[in-house]
Amino acid sequence: MSKRAVLEVIALDVEDAVAAQAGGADRLELVTDMAADGLTPSAATVAGIRAAVDIPVRVMLRLADGFAAGSVERLVDAAGAMREAGAEEFVLGFLDADGGVDLDAVERLAGELRGCPWTFHRAIDGSADREVLRKRLDGMAGLDTYLTAGSAQGVDAGLATLLAEAGRRGEPGYEQQLLVGGGLRLEHVPVLLEGGVDAFHIGGAARPGGWSGPVSVEAVAEWRRVLGG
After folding, report:
1. What share of the chain is helix, strand, coil (3-state, %, to 5)?
2. Which residues lie in coiled coils (predicted)?
């Protein structure tokens, strides 16, 4: 690796954010309600975390469990509220009933974000055809990252797909950074690094006490050590 690998940590509140930064995280994904796999947090939480840390924060735009967009107007309103609270980077991703990308919803939100960088999250792992999804989103304003485990079943099942996609970096539809997360464990890191993956996303792995407990500085620091830098 010629550069430091990115370590992104899920934060639910200011305490998590401060601990993640202290442990060496490069970026936060800010959500609420992990029982629903992460929804849009409150504007107050966004403002508090932006005031507490100086690393980038990506804020989730998702109002209900699953990958359906639901009310696009509500999503647009949420995006506006998050921007007013200081959010400058985002996470989103929606599928239609057939498992294809919901291009109307994604385009509408990307337009609302006006060039802010954003991640298309693990909806890609639930899509009917990941390559078609990537090609349809090719050139979308602000899209610079895909968060993926390579499979809806997690990194164990998706490892071969992740390595294959890392090997296609730079092709049309594959220019974005591959951010690996979803059942990610430290033992996966060496083969992913060797395969060219340079960004890693952890949630439960940063919380030895589970989701009812806070982010651990020590746990994040161990990931930072293994990733280098």
Report:
1. 40, 15, 40
2. none
Task: Write the CA distances from 43 to 31, 47, 91, 141, 155, integer angstroms.
Answer: 11, 6, 15, 24, 32
Q: How far apart are the first and last CA of the chain?
A: 11
Give the bridge partners for 90, in sequence order.
59, 118
Look up the domain containing 172 and give its range: 6-227
58-115 pLDDT, tens digit each: 999 999 999 999 999 999 999 999 999 999 999 999 999 999 999 999 999 999 999 9
The residue type of 10 is I
Contact 108, 72 (CB under 8 A): yes
| Secondary structure in 3-state letters for 176-191 | CEEEECCCCCHHHHHH
Global pTM value: 0.96
What value, to the nearest 5°, has the Cα angle with vertex 109 and ends 206 and 132?
A: 80
